[in-house]
Amino acid sequence: MVSKHWRLHKQKYVLAGSKCRGCGTLFFPARQYCAGCEGTNVEDYGFSGHGVIETYTTIHIAPAGFNAPYVVAIIRLNEGVSIVSQIVAQGDKAEIGKNVKAVFRKISDDRSDVIKYGFKFEVV
Predict the structure, then answer these.
(1) What is the value of pTM for the model shown?
(2) Tens of pLDDT along 75-92?
(3) Interatomic CA distance for residues 70 and 78, integer angstroms
């Protein structure tokens, strides 16, 4: 059942969004409705996975399933969309304006021994 959940939610493990065929607006995660032109003619869109750190913070007290400390950032992808993601780096490597790329990593694990994987970003 877990694998079906991940297959149905592609944006959890790849940078897959959508693009409006009418006005070209990009979305992550994917949408079926364009907030730009209010159209419904959207298609799947795969992002490059490259971007720049706009801002970040270090989490020192983590929720269940996460190991602190870890860095969370707002990333502006090269295509112009901003997303929130963990950074695979110590706080001293994460800086505003640094280039990053998406990587596939362990996100968390819970008490049921289910390990969740997804994308994070690393400084390049």
Answers:
(1) 0.80
(2) 999 999 999 999 987 656
(3) 24
